[in-house]
């Protein structure tokens, strides 16, 4: 990856709806070589996809909860069952296995506190292998690695 590739990525991170001609102009290329570079970056797995940012309240996901989870044991079967259950929940928008404690960190997004309480007691706490969890409620998000562009489905005009 060279400086031009990085510039293309930077522009797409800021606004993935930029037309190929706009990207080309901004990075000093003509449209054909620019499009070839974008396609190569996609093929090589550098660009993983294009996404629209949707207001959480529009999806009934404005209430976000950070959840730390600890398991009863670290047996492979326990980990696999727990991870399969965790990723199957639509309410879980992010999940990570951690080194040390807690074993997992998840971000849950739901409509409100009552919805979270139902999800927690009826579904999450019923997952086999779960020993302990702690819920934390963010006051506000100070920074998220999601640039403030227009969002969208991909480079238009490509």
Automatic annotation (TrEMBL):
SMART domains assigned: HTH_ASNC
Domain annotation HTH asnC-type: ranges: 1-62
CDD domains: HTH_ARSR (cd00090)
InterPro entries: ArsR-like_HTH, AsnC-type_HTH_dom, Dimeric_a/b-barrel, Tscrpt_reg_AsnC-like, Tscrpt_reg_AsnC/Lrp_C, Tscrpt_reg_HTH_AsnC-type_CS, WH-like_DNA-bd_sf, WH_DNA-bd_sf
Organism: Actinoalloteichus caeruleus DSM 43889
Assigned keywords, A-Z: DNA-binding, Transcription, Transcription regulation
Name recorded for this polypeptide: Transcriptional regulator, AsnC family
Pfam families: AsnC_trans_reg (PF01037), HTH_24 (PF13412)
């Amino acid at each position: 990856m060279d400086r031009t590739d990085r510039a293309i990525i930077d522009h797409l991170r800021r606004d993935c709806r930029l037309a190929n001609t706009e990207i080309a102009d901004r990075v000093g290329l003509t449209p054909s070589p620019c499009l070839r570079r974008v396609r190569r970056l996609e093929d090589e797995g550098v660009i993983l996809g294009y996404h629209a940012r949707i207001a959480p309240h529009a999806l009934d996901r404005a209430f976000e909860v950070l959840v730390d989870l600890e398991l009863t044991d670290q047996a492979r079967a326990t980990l696999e069952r727990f991870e399969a259950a965790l990723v199957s929940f639509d309410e879980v928008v992010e999940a990570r296995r951690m080194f040390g404690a807690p074993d997992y960190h998840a971000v849950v997004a739901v409509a409100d506190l009552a919805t979270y309480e139902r999800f927690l007691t009826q579904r999450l706490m019923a997952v086999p292998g779960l020993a302990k969890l702690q819920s934390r409620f963010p006051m506000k998000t100070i920074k998220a690695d999601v640039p403030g562009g227009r969002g969208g489905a991909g480079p238009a005009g490509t």
